[in-house]
Write a structure and sequence with these properties.
This protein is of the alpha+beta class. About 40% of the residues lie in helices and about 20% in strands. Helix 4 runs antiparallel to helix 5, helix 10 packs antiparallel against helix 11 and helix 12 runs antiparallel to helix 13.
């Protein structure tokens, strides 16, 4: 394959979760900030200030480092997924105007196809970076290159080497300059190479990106498979990974969480499972999908002194459905089969499986799909009200009211972008 004449940019938000928290807290601009996992368990994100002093603390349990972190002036937040999703949508929408084609790669990363844009790409990358910062408040870095793998590598250089000022354009650099940079980078900085694969390559004497780039692709394919061969060809400027503008169709929809406190009664578990069934059903309708099967699991913690108990079961539906009531009824029926007294449960969840689009539905002979037109209108009304006012405005009674089992998020910031009652105040 000839060298690529494509040009890709990878735009990646810096310390995304922590940056989202700082957007609405300008008083924390230069303060080290960390974001914690579910139930305020571990550190899962850090601002650049926190990375400078706490880098080795990533993924450490918060209770182990809380005292020392507070002495250092670190501010901690519980995960606020509603806020992060809304900020991600703003980020992706802002990027869309800069290229005819866009691939949303993750919540904080997006590829843009800049092929044919006949202008100074470093200046264009800086314009993208400045516009995102002005419109969303999120700091980002931009990597530009002729392949997606090289664009990811260029983005890493933009983040780690301050003289690039957040924009690294491999297409404007000489081969000698790029090779010199690659020689300084470990293999783990290449897209798709994890710790295990890096260790295997190290044993063969391949320790840096330049050495990998110069490896024989055919010998690498024989030893490690075609995916690594493509990576090597991409490092050499051959474009083997196309831009994917469509999101992959979901194969299942899952809703699960660890409980804030242990749960032992069937009534409390029914509330939790009913909540997850409702949540998963709403996500299903959002994507225009129907479920053929419902899966439920409950478990205690494998780290408890008591013997581990984990149970799950799947039930096939008579016909595909997106109706919250039908899915909830099935999930609660499964739960009663799984429940055992005397166990302190730590987690429960509901998964909707064997999904099909609305056109893939088939009617059944036993009346399960009867009244579908009323069901669709009811679900539309439910989703519209919850979207307009806030999630959970209308819900099933079986979800309960007090929900003592809900996930602990004692340091959660307000939902600034998704709830009228939590809008930031300007004085």
């Amino acid at each position: 394959m000839p060298l690529s004449n494509r040009v890709y940019a990878l735009c990646d938000a810096n310390s995304f979760y922590a940056s989202c928290e700082k957007v609405f807290r300008p008083d924390l601009k230069n303060t080290p900030v960390v974001v914690l996992s579910n139930n305020d368990g571990c550190v899962v994100a850090q601002s650049k200030e926190a990375k400078a002093m706490l880098d080795l603390w990533m993924c450490r349990p918060w209770f182990e480092i809380e005292e020392e972190a507070k002495k250092l002036g670190v501010v901690a937040f519980s995960s606020n997924y509603e806020l992060y999703a809304n900020m991600s949508n703003r980020f992706m929408t802002t990027l869309r105007q800069f290229a005819p084609r866009q691939e949303v790669y993750s919540i904080d990363e997006s590829f843009l196809d800049l092929t044919g844009i006949n202008r100074d790409l470093v200046a264009y990358g800086k314009q993208i970076k400045d516009t995102v910062l002005q419109w969303t408040g999120l700091p980002i870095c931009v990597g530009i290159a002729n392949t997606k793998t090289l664009a990811k590598l260029a983005n890493h250089c933009a983040k780690k080497q301050s003289h690039f000022n957040g924009v690294c354009d491999f297409t404007s650099m000489s081969k000698t300059e790029i090779d010199a940079m690659m020689q300084q980078l470990p293999l783990s900085k290449v897209w798709g190479i994890g710790n295990k694969l890096e260790a295997k390559l190290n044993k063969l004497g391949v320790h840096d990106v330049l050495r990998l780039k110069r490896a024989d692709p055919k010998r690498i394919r024989d030893e490690f498979g075609v995916l690594l061969e493509r990576t090597i060809r991409e490092l050499n400027g051959e474009s083997w990974l196309e831009l994917d503008e469509t999101l992959p169709e979901a194969k299942q929809v899952m809703s699960s969480r660890s409980f804030g406190t242990r749960v032992s009664t069937l009534a409390e578990l029914e509330e939790a499972v009913s909540y997850h069934a409702t949540n998963a059903s709403a996500r299903l309708r959002k994507h225009g999908l129907y479920a053929n099967a419902v899966y439920v699991f409950i478990q205690n913690s494998p780290f408890d002194k008591a013997q581990f108990y984990g149970a799950s079961h799947t039930v096939a539906m008579p016909s595909p459905t997106d109706n919250t009531m039908q899915i909830n009824k099935t999930a609660l029926w499964i739960l009663k089969k799984l429940y055992k007294e005397g166990i302190y449960y730590q987690k429960a969840g509901v998964m909707l499986m064997e999904l099909v689009p609305s056109g893939g539905q088939q009617s059944d002979l036993f009346g399960f799909t009867q009244g579908d037109s009323k069901s669709a209108k009811l679900m539309d009304t439910l989703d519209s009200i919850n979207k307009k006012y806030s999630k959970g405005t209308i819900k099933l009674a079986s979800e309960g009211v007090h929900k003592a089992w809900v996930m602990k998020r004692g340091m959660k910031s307000p939902n600034y972008t998704g709830d009228w009652n939590e809008l930031p105040h300007i004085r």
